[in-house]
Amino acid sequence: MLIIPFTHTPTLSSITDQTARQSTYTEMHRYRSALHAMLQQRSNGALGAVTWEVSRGTGIHIHWQFLPVPADLIKRGLVDAAFKVEAENLNYPKFERPSATADPSSEPGDFFRLWIWEPAAETETTNPEPEGSDGTAATTKATGTEKTLLLPLGAEFRFDIQFGRRVMAKLMELENRMNWRDGVQSQEEEEADAAAFKEAFKEFDFSLQE
């Protein structure tokens, strides 16, 4: 699944207006958090998620790729290890912590950014306001822990843009879907999946409430 902003620019850091850059990042992050909440409620904590971003000045349009993952793989440290081992096998630089922790939207240079979200053991349900006359009930929010890792990429570095998909396909034993072209759906299948997702996500979609 892709999270794609309206702003047409190759990287977040290339958005020169600070307010616009931060608001773009914030909205993308809100969608990611809403997806976490949906996964936590629908799977009762059985699913975590991995999100990655390839940020290169030569890119075309910012986007994040979001993938639900069995929470057990995250808890056992296998997701973290899989990315680090594959990077080492390909002679890539080592993963490191982000430098722009105060403002993640301003992370400089070219990089592969990885977020690994592990859900809490139980779903935390909060009710910030009393139930209204419109029947609005308690809001379920995602809880858990998240790790962010960064793989620095030089401007001339030859990087496989399918790196994230390749790592996760191997880890989840889905090698036959390592290349996205091998998993192309028919139009009917895409429409059915889109309709099912909209139905599952609508109570978590903040854009429908604003």
Automatic annotation (TrEMBL):
Residue intervals of the Cwf19-like C-terminal domain: 2-76
Membrane-spanning intervals of the chain: none
Signal peptide (from-to): none
Gene Ontology terms describing biological process: mRNA splicing, via spliceosome
Limits of the Cwf19-like protein C-terminal domain: 150-206
Single GO cellular component term: post-mRNA release spliceosomal complex
Domain of life, per lineage: Eukaryota
Family matches, as InterPro entries: Cwf19-like, Cwf19-like_C_dom-1, Cwf19-like_C_dom-2
Ranges in coiled-coil conformation: none
A Pfam family this chain is assigned to: CwfJ_C_1
Any one GO molecular function term: RNA lariat debranching enzyme activator activity
PANTHER family, alphabetized: CWF19, CELL CYCLE CONTROL PROTEIN, CWF19-LIKE PROTEIN 1
Name of the protein in question: Uncharacterized protein
Species per Swiss-Prot/TrEMBL record: Aspergillus turcosus
